[in-house]
Amino acid sequence: MPQITQHIQQQILTNIKKLLGAKCIGCGIYAETPICNKCYDNLQKPDIICTMCGIEMMTHTDTQRCSQCIQFPHSFHSLNYIATYDGLASQLIVGSKRELHTKLYEGYSVLAMPTPKYRLAHRGFNLAHILAKQFANIHSLPLIPSNTVKTPLRSKKQALLSKKQRYKNKPQYTITAKLPKNIVLIDDVATMY
């Protein structure tokens, strides 16, 4: 598994280099890679992580998954990342988002995570839709109409539930039109554990 993760990390760095050129996105100096050695060494990287949720683990396990992810499996295979999202890494990500080119999302359409109507009426706005619309505009991508995927009239708010409750609470979505093959799904929060 570590070899696969290193390979994926190298592919990500290679793609960033192609998109951004030969300037370190951390400090701005000329570098052979998108992140110079000094900035890369300053990224905080836990030694042992859960390959599903990314949480730092104290020891290696047979499955390389934390107890929460073993008990409540995710619908995806694994999560790969090169640093924790704090300090320099968060600065690099925010900075690189401004410079990434549309090629990264070529052939994709954007969909805002559906929100129940009662929650929209209570809140008065749909943050996921606002974010999806901005993302689509920035990257010149088609925005899938918000009525294409619908949620039930009422559903429990995932963020207020325990992990066990979230696992059991699977709202049923209704798809009202054919969806494109490649979709960037935008939400304002990710509730993992």
Provide structural commentary.
The model has no long low-confidence stretch (mean pLDDT 76). This protein has helices spanning 2-20, 37-42, 67-71, 88-99, 117-123, 127-138, 163-168, and strands at residues 109-112, 149-150, 174-175, 183-186. It contains seven helices and four strands; from the N terminus they run ααααβααβαββ. It has a domain at 102-193. The relative contact order is 0.12. It has 193 residues and is mainly alpha-helical. The protein starts with a helix and ends in a 7-residue tail after the last strand.
What proportion strand?
A: 5-15%
Distance between the termini: 23 Å
Tell me, rounded to a whole number, the average pLDDT.
Answer: 76
- Helical content band: 25-40%
Structural classification: mainly alpha
Q: What is the spatial order of strands in the main beta sheet?
A: 1-4
Number of strands: 4
User: SSE order in H/E notation?
Assistant: HHHHEHHEHEE
Over all CA atoms, what is the radius of gyration?
Answer: 19 Å
Largest sheet: 2 strands, parallel
Residue runs with pLDDT of under 50 for 5 or more positions: none
**What is the overall silhouette?**
globular
Helix tally equals 7
Summary of the model, kept short:
The protein is mainly alpha-helical. It contains seven helices and four strands; from the N terminus they run H-H-H-H-E-H-H-E-H-E-E. The chain has a domain of 92 residues.
